[in-house]
Amino acid sequence: MSATKVPFVTSLRARPGVITVGNASAHDLLHLRVELPEVWDTVRIDIPASEPVLALKVHALQALAPAADRHDDYVVKLRGVEVTDETASLREAGTQNGSIFIVTRRYRRAIR
After folding, report:
1. Which of 30, 70, 81, 110 is the most buried (most CB within 10 A)?
2. Is the dihedral of CA 23, 80, 83, 67 positive or negative?
3. Are 52 and 86 in contact (CB under 8 A)?
4. First to last CA, the chain
5. By the 8 A CB rule, do 87 and 79 touch?
6. What is the mean pLDDT of each run of 10 residues along the chain (112 residues)?
7. What pLDDT does 1 receive?
8. What span, in angstroms and rounded, lies between the C-alpha atoms of 1 and 103?
9. Are 32 and 58 a contacting pair, CB within 8 Å?
């Protein structure tokens, strides 16, 4: 476990367990919450700040929407704003320990 404190907000209404990406003992490990509104579900992800935003999105989609075969159909939002450069590191995107991301469809689907 990292030396950083796990923020309380990451555990609110989240699935049990934590998805760990990369080196779990990294000194820059972030404890994040990722929501997918289409399925009304949330996961906790521990990931180094040096990892790209795309890695966060891919791992969240694998857990929350395994049938989603194209991650390009989804966008990542931090503080309500789309992260347009998914190759940027989480640190470069402005992520802090305890940040909440939303992964959602790029285009809304019609309801019939």
Report:
1. 30
2. positive
3. yes
4. 46
5. no
6. 58 72 83 91 93 95 89 92 95 94 83 68
7. 42
8. 26
9. no
pLDDT of residue 10: 61
User: How many beta carbons lie within 10 A of that of residue 6, not counting itself?
Assistant: 16
Strand partners of residue 102 = 35, 77
- Radius of gyration (Cα) for the chain, nearest Å? 13
Distances in Å between the Cα of 66 and the Cα atoms of 71, 79, 109 are 11, 25, 18
Measured in residues, the chain has a length of: 112
DSSP H helices, 1-112, are 53-64
**Cα separation of 11 and 75, whole Å?**
23
Q: Nearest Cα to 39, choosing from 9, 15, 6?
A: 15
State residue 111's pLDDT score: 67
CA distance 106 to 20: 26
The class that CATH gives domain 8-105 is alpha beta
Closest C-alpha to 102, from 35, 41, 42: 35
